[in-house]
Each structure stands twice: as structure tokens, then as C-alpha cells.
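Supplementary Note 3. Input sequence used for the single-chain structure prediction.
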Amino acid sequence: MGALPAVETLKSPTLREEVHRAVFPGGLQIYFCSKRGFKKRYACYATHYGSVDSVFAAPGESETRRVPDGIAHFLEHTLFETPKGNVNELFARNGAYSNAMTSFNTTVYLFAASDRFYENLALLLEFVENPSFDPAKVEKERGIIGQEILMYRDDPGWVGYMGLLESLFVEHPLRIDIAGSPESIRRIDVAALDRSYRTFYSPANMILFAIGDIERDELLRFVGERSKGAAASHAAPAVRAIERSIPAEPPAVAREEFRREMEVALPKLLLGFKEVGIPAAGPSFLRREMVTGLVLDILFGRASDGFQRLYRSQLVLDDFSATYHACSGAGYAAVGGETPDPAALRVAVWAEIERGQKAGIDESDFRRQKRKFIGGFIRQFNSLEFIAGAYTYYRFHGVDLFDAIDVLESIGREEVEERLRTLFRPEAQAASVIVPKGG
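The predicted structure, written as C-alpha cells, is reproduced below.
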């Protein structure tokens, strides 16, 4: 290749971290974080494409069209089978660990290796950028994914989680299983896979992130020479040319409760709290995530008074958690875990919420919990996987991961108390309960 692309350096003085960013003529963005002295090196190749993107118009198309549910996950599976063999086996021969995952709005391919980094990076670029949609291979994957779907239908944790989302959402594709259904994957064919790939695996819709003890210019030169997505001759339309269509979601929940008997030793309860019409990207998206994470930690984190009360009452076990997720203009908080008494835990969780809403949060408690929350956030930067995954995730949402620490520092008690009132509303609540068979 010719001259290297211009490099922008993004720094966080608080975290003492920096990331270098370059954009190739073909539209591909590459981010690089130097970790001198680290033996492990890690790279991920991600596309802003997930299970919710089932209705879209590709660049140049005048109307949106629907593809079968589960196609983003199906596509991920298909890419792993190459003419040279299964990608996991090829990485293993190079001494690398590899994986891939499809979420509601991203698909990520990754590897971690101590040696032969560039051999593995070449393999990552090659299999992601050169799909092979052979009909026989597609049919084989259909059977594998069908078995995977049936396996998850026997998993109490997944059944309870999807039961909650189906109860919270009426129209939003968050309610649809990422893998689709046995019926929907039967409608996936080579033409649908090819259209989805050409639309969402365009260079301008993708990010390559590398982290470890790597020379920046060597990395840029290698990617420029080996990646089709970096080549000027493969320049892609801008990301905005992809028209994604998400149906309008009403404020009310679809149903108040999902209940299922399964082979479990103890019941499982998940309480969900739905939000609609929220920011899908940008600084407001980031701030909402950070403030909500702090609210949930203050109410139900391991060091919180609320968790200690629930634990002493023997209503929760070590798997109890409180999380928040937002995607394409909708969001939800999920609180719960295994419990001997789902009904009593539901009452107790609401009691903790109402205690915070009515009494507010003590200023000294707020400062202590906030310091702990920020400390936990900073500790995650010891993980190469966290940095790469989180940085990519937030970039796809139009913000920088390094901005998160400044947002956290700026959050005040009044903002947390206001978020506590707006997030937990009885009319936006649904529950998912898994109980033992015959219990």
C-alpha cells in the first residue's frame, strides 16, 4: 500500500489509556490500543449488525424489506465454515483462542493469542471478508442452529430471560430470540444471507480493534495490504445509507407475567422495567447507561444495604443481579435470580425501590457508592477483552468509551434520585417466573 492513513490519538488522562484511530479509504475504521509488556494480544472485527436489524433497505434500495428472524446469528455461523475448514480449528493450529457472538445490535469475531499475531489477524480478515454461501453448507448450518435453538429452550435461565423480554415488549424486536426460531431459520437461504452480508458487512459499517504489545505502523500497514475493507477500490457507501426500520413500541407492557414449569431446583424470578422513546446513540445514550448502572448498583449491588437485606432474609442467592440494556430506542432493567419464594422476593424488591424513591439517597452513602462504582469500572480496564469489546460497542453508539469515566465523575445525587423515580414505574413492569415442575 502507499502512505499510511492519518492517525488520531484519543486519550483518557484519568485512566492513563490512549487509543489510536485511523480510517482507511475503503471506509474501514481501525482502533489500536498499545499495551507494552503484555504477552497476550487480542483483536476483534465487529459489524454494527444484530438480531434487531431484520427490516432494512440496503444502499441503493428504495423500500425496506424484512428478512427472517435469526439471520444475523445464522450469518455468523456460516462465516465460520470456510473452504479451508472450520475457523476455530484453523485458529487453534496457530495457538489462538477464537470466538464470535451475535447480540441485539452487533456481531463480533475475535481471537486472542500470545504468538503468531499477524498470522491470526490475517485469518480473521480473510474469513470475515470472504464469505462462502454454499447451499449445502447453509443447509448443514440450519440443522446445527436448529439444535442450538432447541437446546436453549431447555435452559431455564434463557427461557426466563426471553420470557421477560416477550412480556415487556409488544412490537420491538428485542422480544425476538437472537437465534430466531426453527420456523424462521427454515426461510433463510443463500440470497437472504448474501443481501444481509453485502448490506451490513460493508467496511464503513465495521470496526477492527487490536490491543496488545503491537507496533502501530506495522499494524496499519498489514491491514492496509491484507484487508479488502481497507482498500480504496472497495470503497463502501456511508453507514447512513443503510435504512434500518424499528417498529414503534407502545409504553404499556405486553403482559404482566410469564410463568413456566421447568427442571430446576429453585424458582427463578426476573423483574423487568421497560422504557421506550429513549436515545439510541450519542452522549445522552452514554449518560443514561452510566446513571442507570449507578442507580442499580446503589440499590442492589453487592455492597448495598438493599442487597444485604435481601440476602439476610434468605430471598436471594449469589446469582442475584440487576442490569440495564438499551437498544434501538428502547431499554429495560432486569432484577432477580434464584429464590425460594418468588412472590416474597417481588414484594421485597419493590420495597427497596420504594424506600429509595421516598427517602432519597443519603449524601455520604451516595459518595461512597459512587467511588466504589467508579473503582469497579476502572478495574475492568485490566482486561484486554473488556477494552476492545466496550470500546467497539460505544463507538457503534456514537460515543467514546473514555468519555464514560468523565460522565461518571459528573453524576450528582439529585440526578440519581430522579433516575430512580423514572426508571421504576409499576405500569412499565413485568415479571418472569420459572418454577420447579410440580412445585
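The two ends are 67 Å apart (CA to CA). The chain has 15 helices and 17 strands.
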